[in-house]
Amino acid sequence: MKRLIFCALMLALQITVFAAETPAPLTDTELDIAEIVAEIQTAGKPYVKNGYAVFTADKNARHVGIAVDFENFNTIHSFMKKNLRDENYEIKDSVYFYVMRLPKNTSQIDYRLVIDGLWTVDPNNPQTVYSPETSLMLSRFYTNIEKEEATETISSGTVRFVYKGKSGESIRLGGNFTNWDSWIYKLVEVSPGTYQLDLPLPPGTYEYAFYTGMTSFPDESNPERCYTNDGKVASLLVVN
């Protein structure tokens, strides 16, 4: 009997260890980044790939970090090191890299590198600018991404709701600011397939959705999501 119990415990332990060692499937973001990293072979100018900014640095440093303007240079993001291997899987070279998701509607990034504790411009990027606010030279990277129209706060207390679709549609707006009455506000087609509505809203957190007929759907230009009390998917917006 003891032998049977021992065997059962060992089998359970093996199953537990196997489950613990089974890797979780990669997310879409992790797959995107893995594809980008696989293509990095040398240090060079920053570039854009699939909505990500890719920065690289020479292998000789002990540590490389980056701080960017849209975070007010408050955070230093550490680079990772990629080893490049030959056909015998021997390390032949290496390169530092950092992959950053581009914020929405970003046309340029001003940044500084931190190489072995020293703040400096990017030696691989010849584009630099002087910042009067910091009295420092900054590296500048033009992302060359066309600004996309999206729902956003355009002025203090005013939100511009944007929907992109087919020309000639009838698109309404409803949310917790209308007690989910979707017949109060209708978006205006400002150009073929582009609909907008400017709405004053006080500071707060708002749930909303677009409507066509009796069907509601979230705002595709706003990635923030929530669930309404009746279980439907809606968009979430914070007005400061």
Automatic annotation (TrEMBL):
This protein's UniProt keywords: Signal
Gene3D superfamilies: Immunoglobulins
Origin: domain of life: Bacteria
Signal peptide residues on this chain, from the entry's feature table: 1-19
The protein, known as: Isoamylase
Naturally occurring in which organism (per UniProt): Treponema peruense
